[in-house]
Amino acid sequence: MNSYLDTDELGFYGDFGGAYIPELLRPNIEELEQAFSYYRNDAQFIDEYKSLLKDYVGRPTPLYFSAKLSATFGAKIYLKREDLCHTGAHKVNNTIGQILLAKRMGKSTIIAETGAGQHGVATATACALSGMECKVFMGEKDIERQAPNVLRMNYLGAEVIPAVSGSKTLKDATNEAIRYWINHPETFYLIGSVVGPHPYPKMVAEFQSIISEEIRQQLLEKEGRRNPDIVIACVGGGSNAAGAFYHFYDVPEVQLIAVEAAGEGVMTGKSAATSALGTPGVIHGSMTLLMQDQDGQITEPHSISAGLDYPGIGPLHAHTISSGRVQAIAVTDNEALEAAHALALTEGIIPALETAHALGALNQLTLNPDDVVVINLSGRGDKDLETIAKFINKTS
Amino acid sequence: MKLKTTHPLLSIFLTAGYPQLNDLPRQLALLEKYGVDFVEVGIPFSDPLADGPVIQESSTIALKNGMQLSLIFQQLKAVNTSVPLVLMGYLNPILQFGMDRFLAEANHVGVKHVVLPDLSIEIYERSYKEIFDHYGVTPCFLVTPKTSDDRIRKAARLSEKGFVYLVSTNATTGSQHLTTLNLQERYREVKSLCGATPVIMGFGIRDKATFEAATVDVDGAIIGSAFIQALGSGKEEEFLAQLKSPK
After folding, report:
1. Contact B223, B7 (CB under 8 A)
2. Which of B52, B123, B147 sits opposite A23 (nearest CB)?
3. Nearest Cα to Cα of residue A195 among A128, A289, A272
4. Which of B52, B63, B122 sits opposite A297 (nearest CB)?
5. CB contact under 8 A, A22 and B117
6. What is the DSSP string of chain B?
7. Tally of domains in chain A
8. What is the pLDDT of residues B187-240, one digit of tens each?
9. Angle between the A26-39 and A91-104 helix axes, to the nearest 10 degrees?
10. Is cis: bond before A60, omega within 30 of 0?
11. pLDDT at B174
12. Residues of chain A predicted below pLDDT 70
C-alpha cells in the first residue's frame, strides 16, 4: 500500500525531499542513513529510547479534555500536552532519539540550530545527559527575543553561537550550522525539525511519531475510538505537526490541519505562511515549498513566533499539503496572541506562541458538536513572556 | 571549452555583480590579459551555505547591486572573450529561472560547463541529464579526498567533457585520518581514477605558492576567496600580476 510517509530511494516524498547537499557532506549523510536504518529496527535501541521517553521526558503526556474550549467552539476539544514534556516542548522526543544514535555512531560533539530556543534547550539537555559537547546556532534576533532559553542552554553547558547573516533568525542559524558541519564533518548535526536533507525529515518525523501513537491509545480510553475527526498542529519546519499527524496520514477520515504563521497578514509582506506564499525550491538540502522572490532568492519571513519564523516547510508537509491530504490555515500574530491569552485565562495554561497559532485556527473552522478535535499543544509559553509583555505595552 | 593540460591550469572564481553591478566585462578582459585558463562566474545567491564569509559577502553585495541571472546572461552576451567560462551557482536561482532556459541561455552565450555544488550525481542523472545532453552543457562534479573510488570514477565519466572539481580537504583536523602526506597520495589517486578527465583543485588556493603546490598532483587549481578579496580592495591587477605576467 502506498503511504504518505513513503520515500523513494533518493529520499523524496513525491516531488519533495531528496538530499541537495555539497559533496563534502555526502559521507556524513550516508553514515547517518546507515546508522538510522539499522538502529530504528534494533530492539535494544528502541528499548533505551522508550525508557528515556518514559522516565526522563515524562511520557506519555496527558490528552486533556478542555471543557472551556469545547464549550466555546462547540466540539469535543482535546489538548495533547507536549508542553508537559521535560524542557517544555515536544522537541525533546527527537533530541533524545538522535543523541542515542549519535552515541552509537561514536560522536562526541553535537551541533544544532534553533529558532525559539526550544530545540536548542532540548539538545543541550540531551547533551548534558549523555556527556556530549554541544554547540547551538541561533539567530541574533532570536537570541534577543528568546533570552530565557539562551540562559537555559548556557546553564546546561551548551555554547550558543549567534548567526548574524540575513534575517538573523532560524534560516540563518541553519545556514551557519550546515557551514560548521561542512568544516567539521566529525560532528553530529542534530536537526530539530522535519527539514534538511534526507534522511533527516524521515528520522525526525519518526522520533516525533510517539505523539500520535499516544493520541490513538488515549483517545480509545476516552472516546472509545482511536481516530479523532480533526488534528490541528502549528507548522514552522513542522516537527510537532509531523508527529501529531504521523499515524493519521493514511487514515483518510481524519482531517489534518497545519497552521502556519501569517505574521501581520498573509499578503502584507510580513508573513511566514510558507504553503500560501511559497513555491517549490531547494532550501537547507531538500526540495520543498519555500518563500522566495522571482529570482529564486530566499525571502525573509516574519512571525512573532521565533519557531515559525522560517521561509520553508518540511518536505513531508510540502507533499501532503500539495496533494490535498493536509489543509493549511494561516493565523496572524494578533490572533495567536489572543488565543494564547484566552487559554491562559480559561484553562490556566500558557502556551508557546508557536502553539498559540494552532489554537488560533479554531476560529476559522466550522465544527459539529460531535467532532473530536485534538490540538497538539506543542510547547509552553514561559519563554515568550517578554515578547508578550512588549506587545501588551505597545498596544495599551 | 577543450581544456589543454600541457601546463597547470589557472582558474579564477568571481561573483558576478561584485563589487559593482557592471564589473563583469571589465573583469573578464583583465583575466584574459593575464592568461587565466578559465573563469568561473559565480551566480549570487541569498543563502550560499557551502561558502565562507568572503564569498557570502560578495554574494550579498552583488544581490544588493541588483544582479540576477538574466542580467549575467545579458552581460555575457555582450562580452567578447576567448577565455572559457564556467557558470557556478546554487540550484535554487537556476530552478526559478528554469533549468531548460538556463541551459539554453548558457549554450547561447557559449558557456559549455556548469558547477552546481548542491546538485548530486543521483538527482542529476534522474532529473536533468537528458536536458544537459540536449543543450550540450557538461556538469562538472565535485569530489573530495573522502569520496569513494567508484563515485570519483562516475563523476569523471559524467564530467569528461569538462573537469572534476576536487575539493582539496574537508578543512578540519583530527577525525580525517589524512595527514598532509597521504592527502597528497590521495590527490594522485583521484587524478588516476579520473583518467582523461582533468582534475582541478579548489578551496584554500590563494597565491602563487599554494597554486604551485596544488598543481603538482592535479591538472589545475581554482582561486576564489583570495581574488574576491582583491576585487573588494581594487587590487585585482596586482593580485594577478603576482600569479602570472600579462600577455
Report:
1. no
2. B147
3. A289
4. B63
5. yes
6. -----SS-EEEEEEETT-SSTT-HHHHHHHHHHTT-SEEEEEPP-S--TTS-HHHHHHHHHHHHTT--HHHHHHHHHH----S-EEEE--HHHHHHH-HHHHHHHHHHTT--EEE-TT--HHHIIIIIHHHHHHHT-EE--EE-TTS-HHHHHHHHHHTTTS-EEEE---S--STT---HHHHHHHHHHHHHHTTTS-EEEESS--SHHHHHHHTTTSSEEEE-HHHHHHHHTT-HHHHHHHH----
7. 2
8. 999 999 999 999 999 988 999 999 999 999 999 999 999 999 999 999 999 999
9. 100
10. yes
11. 33
12. 1, 395-396
Q: What is the mean pLDDT of chain B?
A: 92
* AA identity, residue B173: T
pLDDT tens digits for B124-146?
999 999 999 999 999 999 999 98
A198 is in which domain, residue-wise? 12-52+91-204
Any domain includes A5: no
User: Please, what CATH class does the domain formed by B9-141+203-241 belong to?
Assistant: alpha beta
**Domain map (residue ranges) of chain B:** 9-141+203-241
Give A-chain residues touching B122 at CB under 8 angstroms. 10
Inter-chain contact B47–A298, Cβ cutoff 8 Å? yes
Percent of chain B scored above 90 by pLDDT? 84
